[in-house]
Amino acid sequence: MFNSLPRTIPRPYLLTRHHLTTAPPPPQDTALANLILTSTNHRTLAQALHSPSIQWTQALVNSILKRLWNHGPKALQFFKVLDHHPSYCHHPSSYDHAIDISARLRDFRSAWALLVRMRSRRLGPSPRTFAVLAERTLRGRFKADCVSYNIIANGWCLIKRTPKALEVLKEMVQRGLSPNLTTYNIMLKGYLRAGQTKEAWDFLLEMKRRKCEIDVVTYTTMVHGFGVVGEIKKARKIFDEMTMEGVLPSVATFNALIQVLCKKDSVENALLVFEDMVKKGYVPNTITYNLLIRGLCHTGEMQRAMEFMGRMKEDECEPNVQTYNLVIRYSCDAGDIERGLDVFEKMDSGNCLPNLDTFNILIGAMFVRKKSDDLLMAGKLLIKMVDRGFLPRKFTFNQVLNGLLLTGNQGFAKEILRLQSRWGHLPRQFKL
């Protein structure tokens, strides 16, 4: 009987020393969640989460957020740290989880900031996002307040679902809460964003009929909203009425009017408003100047635009990267590449550093005239671009190399190709 048993144990039944002494490693989401919970140093945590060894996915991020569900502040810290990852971008579902956690903590400021960021990245918000918020704030175990309802209403307005926002407003009143000025401004902005100017105007008249307080934000919203759809006369009328009603316009109000005049009327009328603004003692900001410079550039008045850049510095309002990019782009579009390069040199040697758009504008402009010198400049810009930490798209890199080869600059092309091997984005199919 015993002789029939095998003399050796089959391999599946053998236990190695490793299995006897070492427990299997925890899943990646568990290990990362524990790291986040035990971390006390923000910088160290950011370095760990930004490590190239971690392959972030939507599923992994959502799993970690769920594991940190009972540690809301830590979950939000993790989400914010990963939001600055050099290559990973959050998925809309991850935003929904983070917004849900914020609302559960009654941290509506963070919930609103997440909604705004989600929208700026064109990831939503979606109806599901607002369903999450509504479930958490309006029908949850917490008592919703005016701020809660305002966030939900504003969310619906962001995606142009004004009837839904109005439903939230009605529910708010039914629950014994009085809408405040922020609520009314949200609805007005929502109507105007959706192009519902008649509804916006009727809503404003209803506010006046009920003797609701109307502030500078209300008037600024109306000036901009009516101006954007081309109703300049009504926008001007609202702007003039506000001072008669005892509400002084702000710099933002002037900016709103200047913007719509530049786009829908004339730059000259916008300049008149600007001069009136200065006479009344208002101090224009960078936005004011950028609006006028864009308007002047768009009408081909490049010299006046350059003069306004000089006026900015006289008023101790330094041009920013948007200012420089505007002038560079329009100069190049007008065929005045030399002026564009001159502005770039002033920018590069000053306090305002060029960004990725600056380099892309100039490199693209170098191919218009198809001159050998221009393409050499494109190569130099490409090198400077990478030295500043901006990686060119594969298309841009190939375009510059092709241009250099076609104009007989093989030596420079080879030099860039050698540099590119160090940058880590060498196109596999490109050969010299």
UniProtKB/TrEMBL annotation:
InterPro entries: PPR_rpt, TPR-like_helical_dom_sf. PPR repeats lie at residues 145-179, 180-214, 215-249, 250-284, 285-319, 320-354. Keywords: Repeat. Belongs to the PPR family. P subfamily. This is Putative pentatricopeptide repeat-containing protein. It comes from Tripterygium wilfordii (Thunder God vine).
